[in-house]
Specification:
With 121 residues, the chain is an alpha+beta fold. It has 2 domains: 1-39, no CATH class; 41-118, SUI1-like domain (Translation Initiation Factor Eif1, 2-Layer Sandwich), CATH 3.30.780.10. 26% of the residues lie in helices and 24% in strands. The strands form 2 sheets. The protein has a 5-stranded mixed beta sheet with strand order 5-6-4-3-7, with helices on one face.
Length: 121
């Protein structure tokens, strides 16, 4: 009975939020990216937008909702940056490419077969 109670743990001051699938702290989740139902993020739509907040007015193109694991995201980020001829980074599953390259990135992601939505202004 104690094991069932531990599996339904939602928050613990020891590790913070717990994953509902595996019960591990979210930072140490074993099921994320393992091909389970919890591995896909969002609703299957890749969103491409532009942000300037917190960047002293410099704009970056932001790509979110890509259903890939960490290694796949790194490869995709490198390919997007190379095709745009620009720098960028990968932070917490979000790809940031320096500059406004929304049109080019939308076309590249649609060419890879994903449903892509342009968000923001």
């Amino acid at each position: 009975m104690a094991k069932d109670r531990d599996r339904s743990l939602v928050y613990s001051s020891d590790g913070g939020r717990a994953c509902p699938q595996c019960g591990a702290p979210v930072a140490d989740c074993r099921c994320r990216g393992a091909g389970s139902a919890g591995a896909t993020r969002g609703d299957g739509v890749v969103r491409v937008g532009r942000e300037t907040k917190g960047r002293k007015g410099a704009g970056v193109t932001v790509v979110t909702g890509v259903p890939l694991d960490e290694a796949g995201l790194r490869e995709l980020a490198a390919a997007l940056k190379k095709s745009c001829g620009s720098g960028g980074t990968l932070k917490d599953g979000v790809i940031e490419v320096q500059g406004d390259h929304r049109d080019r990135i939308v076309a590249l992601l649609q060419g890879r077969g994903w449903t892509v939505k342009r968000v923001g202004g």
